[in-house]
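[step 3/7] inverse_fold.run input=structure_tokens len=329
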């Protein structure tokens, strides 16, 4: 069995890393470390050219231990198990219980890595990783650590088991507005994984979650109802309410119902929609051109414009009316 199980018999959703991904991560880390080691060695060789051979050898050994041993230890301690190679391959070093590692874990892993990886060119580490069911090398065994995969494909979400039929709809009047999202998440995770837990642990966790839920709702668990069944029934009631809310919102969106309705009362009629009663045109006196008298226009007919008015108002001056004055010859 490759799954991680804590002391409380809780199964952790972590997948141990295998030899190919671990070997690639170690190769990336060694390439970086050897590059840094060579650069440090060249700089120290130039700086200690005037020293004797004993001092040069001591500095070389110190540089080797500082870079190739202290470097991985410091990186894994500060990054909580993520070196450059592991970060590139999506791996991480954790404790056996799934928690982050500390300095002592990184120190043991670095010291053992000096022997099984650098001292034997990775032969001992590869054999130990192949033999171990979780892919652990000797440094992981002595340090109590494990290399797991962080980037795993997302699987299908587990469905919450339905409550007993005699509990469906029994908590319809329960006030669930005071229950925080964190408690809902904890209850859902428990219901989806309760069959993987030990019977004693499963019962104690159900009682604790039911107690927290009762404290938020203010309604005690009905007599004779198991804690796990009570949690499943309340979660089912919450899901039912969410579905009703979504359906109601969808219907309101399809019918185009406004969010705010107008106040009751007679609806105003737009002014431009009121009927207009036609008014008959009054007789308009028009002076005739030849008769000199007044001519009345019939109702509904437009009066003929007087001579000389054509073109006025359109930017063109019309011909002047006769005045009866004749210029001298």
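[step 3/7] decode complete -> sequence:
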């Amino acid at each position: 069995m490759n799954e991680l199980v804590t002391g409380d018999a809780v199964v952790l959703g972590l997948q141990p890393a295998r030899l190919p991904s671990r070997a690639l991560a170690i190769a990336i880390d060694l390439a970086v470390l050897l590059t840094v080691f060579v650069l440090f060695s060249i700089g120290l060789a130039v700086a200690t050219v005037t020293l004797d051979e004993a001092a040069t050898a001591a500095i070389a050994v110190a540089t080797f231990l500082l870079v190739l041993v202290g470097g991985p230890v410091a990186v894994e301690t500060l990054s909580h198990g993520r070196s450059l190679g592991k970060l590139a391959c999506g791996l991480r070093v954790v404790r056996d219980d799934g928690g982050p590692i500390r300095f002592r874990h990184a120190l043991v892993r670095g010291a053992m890595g000096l022997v099984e990886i650098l001292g034997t060119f990775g032969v001992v580490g590869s054999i130990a990783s192949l033999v171990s069911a979780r892919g652990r090398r000797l440094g992981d065994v002595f340090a109590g650590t494990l290399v797991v995969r962080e980037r795993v494909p997302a699987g299908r979400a587990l469905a919450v088991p339905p409550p007993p039929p005699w509990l469906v709809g029994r908590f319809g009047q329960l006030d669930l507005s005071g229950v925080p999202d964190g408690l809902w998440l904890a209850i859902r995770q428990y219901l989806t994984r309760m069959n993987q837990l030990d019977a004693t642990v499963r019962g104690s966790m159900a009682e604790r979650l039911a107690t927290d839920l009762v404290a938020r709702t203010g309604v005690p668990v009905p007599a004779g109802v198991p804690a796990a069944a009570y949690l499943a029934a309340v979660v089912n009631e919450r899901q039912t309410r969410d579905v009703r809310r979504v359906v109601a919102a969808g219907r309101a969106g399809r019918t185009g119902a406004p969010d705010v309705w107008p106040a009751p009362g007679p609806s105003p009629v737009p002014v431009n929609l009121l009927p207009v009663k036609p008014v008959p045109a009054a007789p308009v006196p028009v002076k005739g051109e030849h008769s000199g008298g007044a001519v009345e226009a019939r109702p509904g007919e437009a009066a003929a414009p007087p001579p000389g008015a054509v073109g006025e108002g359109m930017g063109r001056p019309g011909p002047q009316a006769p005045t009866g004055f004749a210029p001298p010859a």
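[step 4/7] annotate
The longest helix spans residues 19-47.
The beta strands are 4-5, 11-12, 15-16, 91-95, 145-149, 285-287, 294-296.
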